[in-house]
């Protein structure tokens, strides 16, 4: 359906922003370009507002491990936090969509297990079965993340990009589970979920 183009724009712009940002110094030309692309992801689809938080998480980890350093880097993180707050505050609240949101922690967990275990588990499977499938499906990226944090490679190591993408995918899964808890398994969302499948295949 032509009006679903924004889902494809999000799938392109979100990872592209993380590709531009994951290993570059704050306030450089490429950093500004990555920031612009991340903001553009929001204007393709509201869930694009979660692109910058994925990078903020990655940058904070890199700062904590000494792979980024200095006040310029912290100020860059601060700017991205402010931009994220602005974008999330700008997300329209549509009354007709409120009933679709997760109304309890249990409903959110059920929906999260469903989206994270796609395409292996069927929606009618028990929560435990879907949770095990999700864990197995995302085991490769979890292993890569653990190895990355243990080895603390230089910021030029491309595995940092995998960690940033993992954060982005995780936030998108959580957003779908919360915002569309009643029926998160719609085909237009699969175009977002498949990024996680490809990421784990790569890992």
Textual characterization of the structure:
By secondary structure, the chain is mainly α. It has one domain (about 1-200). Helix content is about 70%, strand content about 0%. It has 9 helices and no strands. α1 packs parallel to α9 (about 185-200), α5 packs across α6 and α5 crosses α8. The longest helix is centred in the last third of the chain and has 21 residues, at about 160-180. The two termini are about 30 Å apart. The mean pLDDT is about 95.
Biggest sheet descriptor? none
Oligomer: single chain
Percent helix, as a range, is: 55-70%
The number of helical segments is 9
- The helix/strand class is mainly alpha
Query: Number of folding domains?
Result: 1
Stretches with pLDDT under 50, minimum 5 residues: none
Looking at the structure, what is the overall shape?
A: globular
- Integer average pLDDT: 93
Number of strands: 0
β-strand percent reads under 5%
Using only CA atoms, what is the Rg? Answer: 17 Å
Helix and strand pattern = HHHHHHHHH
Distance from N terminus to C terminus (CA atoms, Å) equals 32 Å
